[in-house]
Amino acid sequence: MKKIAIIDYKVGNIESLKNFFKDLGFQSYLTDQKKKIEDSDIIILPGIGAFPSAIKIMKNKGLIDTIKKISKSGKPIIGICLGMQLLTTKSYEFKETMGLDLIPGEIHPIEDNQYQIGWNNLISKKIDISLWYSPQDNYYFNHSYYFKGSKNYIYATAFKNKELPAIIRNKNIYGIQFHPEKSQESGKNLMINLLKSFN
Amino acid sequence: MLKKRIIANISISDGIVVQSFGFKKKLPLGKAEAFVKNLDRWMVDEIIINDFSRSKKNQNPNFEMIKQIGSIKKNTPITYSGGITNADEAARIINYGFERIAIDSLYIKNPNEIKSIAEKIGSQAIIVSIPLKIYRGKLYHYNHVDKISEQLNFGKLDSYGNYFSELMLIDYLNEGNKNSFNYQIIEKFCKKNKRLKIIPFGGISENKQVYKIINSKQVTALCIGNFLNYIENSYQLYKEFLTNKKIKNIRPASYKKNFI
User: Fold this and answer.
1) Cβ of A123 under 8 Å from any chain B Cβ?
2) What values do phi and psi take at A56, rounded to 5?
3) Nearest CA to B77 among B32, B103, B39, B50?
4) Do A141 and B2 touch (CB under 8 A)?
5) What local confidence, expressed as pLDDT, does residue B22 receive?
6) pLDDT surpasses 70 at B95
7) Of A80, A122, B130, B248, which is most buried, counting CB atoms within 10 Å of its CB?
8) DSSP B165
């Protein structure tokens, strides 16, 4: 059975994620230990929180170098919501803060102080067999900052006044702006397909 | 297209779910876990746990209950409200598996703390909830703790508006009473503030009310409490009504009956 390490940076709906992976039949554990992260098969960067505060904790724990190093091995890394944003080059949430830079691009506020909170469907931008979803399916979003970067990395968007990136990818690094763990059947189907694609 | 939500409210007083009438009279209903499991099974858009007794009694969040609810296997977004006083408590609630928190008395007592909370968990995860009434044509904010009403301060809402994402407008006088939500609360609020996104709550029970409220421009969601418990499949019936009315920006009912 594949082992999933959920990175502990003291923010995020950890308990929901652990229940979610258990329900999908995967073993997951919360950790900030280098060895345990290296021993895992899949790495998850959880969501909910503010960018500068999460990065600060990751820096203090030496997690940034660990994750960057592991990313080069080809091991799948999935960022969810804030976790997705941490994967990018930098963010302007509250102040300019450097990210992990695993997916080139920047995180900017949605124009006019807008939020994307609630259920939205996805618009496909690039075909990827590991990211299966139907255009009719709805997913739960909760964010006010979004990814600005090359379209080469944007696999799906969601429309809120304009198209906002919903799934980004750079090789083995996946960023999901919405919460699959809170998107009921749609979220379960998307995540199980993605996890199974790593075999 | 982003959908408007129907949020299911679970009112809690002293650790148990209650049927509440204006947050004063209450009838006990049972344990929160059972209600959360049911609403998750019904595939509602969102759940809010509203532990209104905590702020009233100056108590911090009920972490024992929060932990218990957090451990339930569920795939529905969930918010906690009740007695949150600082950023550490907010972050702890999120860690236990909640996606958002709602601030009530803290907005009156120490609104600057909302900024600290936003810096920790992000403003998208914060709702401010305000009990309101209309008196002599003006909106009054009711303070449950000190039991006083003051005219709603729009300047204060503007100055803290960047630190929360939605504002729950509670018609507290009509909460728990069928078909009684006072639409003037929305009208008067939106006349003075055209920026904040709102979630009306209190006395919303009928399809025609849901239809009217969901069509208001600044409404991003509405909240229904007691009335979800009165009729079998009530949540799905609201959604079916809206779907039949050709409302496109809602998520259709998706509950599948799982008979045992």
Assistant:
1) no
2) -60, -45
3) B39
4) yes
5) 75
6) yes
7) A80
8) S
Does residue B148 lie in a domain region?
A: yes
H/E stretch holding B199 reads: strand B198-201
E strand map for A92-149: 97-98, 103-109, 116-121, 123-124, 138-143, 145-148
Q: Do the domain assignments include residue B250?
A: no
CA A149/CA A85 separation, integer angstroms: 12
CATH number for the domain harbouring residue B151: 3.20.20.70
Q: Tens digits of per-residue pLDDT, A75-127?
A: 999 999 999 999 999 999 989 999 999 999 999 999 987 999 999 999 999 99
**Complex confidence, ipTM:** 0.94
Highest mean pLDDT, choosing among A3-17, B3-17, B228-242: B3-17
**Catalytic-residue membership of A108:** no
Counted domains in chain B: 1
In chain B, where does DSSP find H-type helix? 32-41, 52-56, 63-70, 87-95, 106-109, 112-121, 154-160, 184-192, 207-214, 234-244
- Asked if A10 lies within 8 A of B95 by C-beta distance, the reply is yes
d(CA A95, CA A116): 21
Catalytic residue check, A106: no
CA distance B40 to A187: 14
Task: Say if the Cβ atoms of B2 and A12 lie within 8 Å.
Answer: no
A189 has a chain B CB within 8 A of its CB = no
Domain of A156 in residue numbering reads as: 3-196
